[in-house]
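[job 0417] fold request received: IreB family regulatory phosphoprotein
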Amino acid sequence: MLDGTRKFTIADEADQEMKRILTTVYDALREKGYNPINQIVGYILSEDPTYITNHLNARSLIRKIDRDELLQELVRQYLAD
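[job 0417] inference complete; emitting structure tokens
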């Protein structure tokens, strides 16, 4: 039994979903022989979905992520380390 109250926020859930999607996209790109970092950066900068493979439904998945939110989270994580 837990003595404390667990805090749940929608932001935490959204961050986990973003991470799950980005990981799937990364894995799909790597499996197809692409450099995942270069391809994801190309997509973020251009918003051109052709940077992302259709393998594992990656192209559809990455379009579910708001690019501004993704950039904010990437900068936040980079500076936190």
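[job 0417] notes: The chain has one domain: 13-80. The chain has a mean pLDDT of 89.
[job 0417] exit 0
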